[in-house]
Write a structure and sequence with these properties.
single chain, mainly alpha, Arc Repressor Mutant, subunit A, Four Helix Bundle (Hemerythrin (Met), subunit A), 3 domains, three-stranded antiparallel β-sheet, 22 helices, 6 strands, 5% strand, globular, disordered C terminus
Length: 480
């Protein structure tokens, strides 16, 4: 497919998605037919068709065939965004430990918010929800765990963080089931951690910060250990469909509306999991279309739709010509970052203080990893350090969030990369609308240079202290 067609389709898809978010139409709202949309936008049918395919993949619209068909608003946008982020984490082959590290950071902020806001009635409800279920079946334990998590997310009253946290909670189970966990295994995890969750609720209610953090670390370790028990991903399409169906999809590749899992979604997962480790050869070549179609036993059409999905998530690229085929890419979360970040910025009314605190804590974790990468001679990290220095010129104002952007570009933990990128989108929007908020540009520039110097010197302690200073003078500390 021509690159300019894809670019134009992507641009129009984003415009269409933004329009649907702002309009607030419910699922099933009729949008017209393809030709109506092409006429409204003033674009060719080919470009509009590409835009529709992208928006349908994102879950924003649903295409129905027949006389009563046309374009309809898809499932709720928040569910779509949860699904996109969760799918990216799984496609990118992230480790359970990466998910849990990010989860710890966000969960701590959410629990602190609940501890501050919870009334006596809220505390009583949390205690009741934390009690062990009468029915001690695995399914009952799993439902019990889900209900308690939802209540904590609701009481925190931080929709942007809940939007980021939900996929992290689900991705751990998703990875486990894909690698061989049964429904009973999922319930067993909930049963094994039930007492810890009850202790967490008590620590949260009493606002015992150190105890709360210790329990969160224990829960995180239990989830990592559980994920590591399973190591047998499916080897054929039918097995993949069975496992995705068990996840309910609920966890389906492009939706959370309970639709049946499609073969392209299973094929995309199979391809992604097959390249999660080292590239198949030096160039990262996975194979030609004919080779992969023959290996998986699917049609060319199913294969191409699966590849289209993986291209959108930045997992693979297609190269034409005699030496072409399907090649592995370094996972690129940009499409997910833009889509989820835009949704938060336009619909969630995010607090700049909460976003800033979350970005700062994620940044602390990223700083540790970047320093470790430099110590191990990581060339990519060094290149990003050089680029960040070059961007700090006296001719233009410093990027308010430049240090965090550097960390997002330099760190190789895909969960941190995605979450930092997502939360910087609404922060950029807040900063753009608050251009009258004063800050010392020279002080900001010097602090950012100092931060990069400390990173290069591998002085982790002082680099983190410098990050604190950067956070004190930027716009995220202002309730605008």
């Amino acid at each position: 497919m021509k690159a300019n067609l894809v670019k134009a389709g992507e641009r129009i898809a984003r415009q269409l998605e933004k329009r649907l978010i702002e309009a607030g139409w419910s699922a099933g709202h009729y949008l017209g037919r393809e030709e109506d949309l092409a006429r409204q936008i003033g674009a060719s049918r080919a470009i509009v068709r590409e835009a529709i395919a992208i928006a349908e993949m994102d879950g924003f619209i649903e295409c129905r065939r027949g006389q009563a068909g046309g374009l309809f608003v898809g499932i709720p946008a928040a569910d779509t965004r949860n699904s996109m982020l969760r799918n990216y984490l799984v496609f990118a082959g992230v480790k359970g430990s990466q998910i849990q590290n990010a989860r710890l950071t966000i969960e701590k902020i959410l629990c602190e918010a609940v501890a501050r806001r919870a009334t006596r009635a809220d505390a009583q409800k949390l205690r009741l929800l934390a009690q062990l279920p009468d029915d001690r079946s695995p399914a009952s334990y799993a439902k019990h765990n889900t209900t308690l998590n939802k209540e904590i997310l609701s009481l925190a009253q931080m929709p942007p963080l809940a939007l980021c946290m939900t996929p992290l909670l689900q991705a751990n189970t998703d990875i486990g089931v894909w690698n061989g966990a049964s429904e009973s295994d999922v319930g067993q995890l909930s049963a094994e951690t039930a007492d810890l969750r009850r202790e967490l609720v008590e620590a949260l209610i009493s606002f015992d910060d150190s105890r709360m953090l210790a329990i969160q670390h224990q829960l995180s370790a239990a989830h990592v250990h559980w994920t590591e028990r399973f190591s047998t991903p499916p080897t054929d399409v039918e097995d993949a469909i069975v496992r995705l169906t068990m996840l309910g999809q609920k966890f389906a590749m492009h939706g959370a509306d309970g639709r049946l899992v499609k073969k392209p979604q299973a094929v995309a997962r199979l391809i992604a999991s097959s390249i999660a480790g080292d590239p198949p050869d030096r160039e990262g070549r996975i194979g030609s279309e004919d080779e992969i179609v023959r290996r998986l036993g699917v049609s060319g059409g199913v294969f191409r739709e699966a590849v289209r999905t993986l291209e959108r998530y930045g997992i693979v690229r297609v190269r034409r010509g005699n030496d072409g085929g399907l090649f592995k890419r370094t996972p690129d979360p940009q499409a997910i970052v833009n889509a989820v970040g835009l949704f938060i910025a336009t619909t969630q009314r995010p607090s700049p203080v909460v976003l800033g605190r979350t970005v700062h804590r994620l940044g602390r974790s990223a700083t540790t990893l970047v320093v470790n990468d430099l110590e191990q001679g990581n060339e990519l990290t060094r290149k990003e350090l050089v680029k960040a220095r070059a961007a700090l010129t006296d001719e233009k104002p410093p990027d308010l969030f430049g240090s965090y952007r550097f960390l997002a570009n330099a760190v190789e933990d895909q969960v941190l990369v995605a979450l930092l990128g997502i939360l910087l989108v609404p922060l950029d929007a807040i900063a753009a609308s608050a251009d009258s908020a004063p800050y010392d540009a020279q002080q900001m520039r010097e602090l950012q240079r100092s931060f990069l110097d400390l990173i290069e010197a591998r002085d982790l302690h002082m680099a983190r202290r410098c990050l604190v200073e950067l956070g004190r003078i930027d716009v995220v500390r202002r309730e605008i």
